[in-house]
Design goal:
Blueprint (H helix, E strand, L loop, with lengths): L1 H12 L3 H18 L5 H16 L3 H18 L5 H16 L11 H7 L10
Helix pairs in contact: 1-2, 2-3, 3-4, 4-5
């Protein structure tokens, strides 16, 4: 699984995004079967798939999967885990891209606070 995941990263790096997505989806099936849906590696792969969706123009799919991933990561890893923070940030960017700024309030306030610890002005007041 690791080798397949690494190859997917290489595919992304050279612009073969569809091939990267195909491999990531295969890795996800294996991880769910062998590690379980709530395993941190499985969750990370799901997050990586969202970036592949964006790379090939499937932005709505990326948004929808990011919402699922954030919910699972928050439950499994906790709100301050780096993977959870990265996903919440990505979801924030997704909402902004789609002009869904009203949905920003759906993100847990502490997520936004953690993202803005070193910034003088918070994203949302």
């Amino acid at each position: 699984m690791d080798a397949m995941g690494n190859l997917a990263v290489s595919y992304d790096y050279i612009g073969r995004h569809k091939d990267a997505l195909d491999l990531k989806e295969k890795v996800l099936v294996l991880q769910k079967k062998m590690l379980g849906e709530d395993n941190p590696d499985t969750l990370r792969t799901m997050g990586n798939i969202t970036s592949s969706y964006w790379n090939i123009g499937r932005h709505k799919d990326g948004l929808e999967l990011n919402q699922v991933v954030l919910e699972m990561q928050t439950r499994v890893l906790g709100i301050e885990h780096p993977d959870t923070l990265r996903t919440s940030w990505n979801l924030l960017l997704d909402f902004e891209y789609f002009g869904m700024t009203d949905r920003l309030r759906e993100l847990p306030p502490s997520d936004l606070t953690l993202h803005t610890r070193n910034v003088s002005e918070p994203i949302i007041s």
